[in-house]
Design brief:
Elements lengths: L2 H25 L3 H31 L6
Helix pairs in contact: 1-2
Length: 67
Amino acid sequence: MTVASNVKQCLASLKGIESQLSSLALNSLDQSAKEAFHDSMLTIGKIKKDLQYRVLELERLEPQYRG
């Protein structure tokens, strides 16, 4: 598996985790848990954004990774 494939797979996993954290934040009855899930979701969102940038960089530098 190429580096680009690994980064894209990691990005897809992070999107799923972000979605699950969002759902947990919305469905949680405990306010402190709700806040923890929300904060974690925001942190994952920042990491996801960094990885999206990295994918763009990989695709720009290595045209064979586009797709």
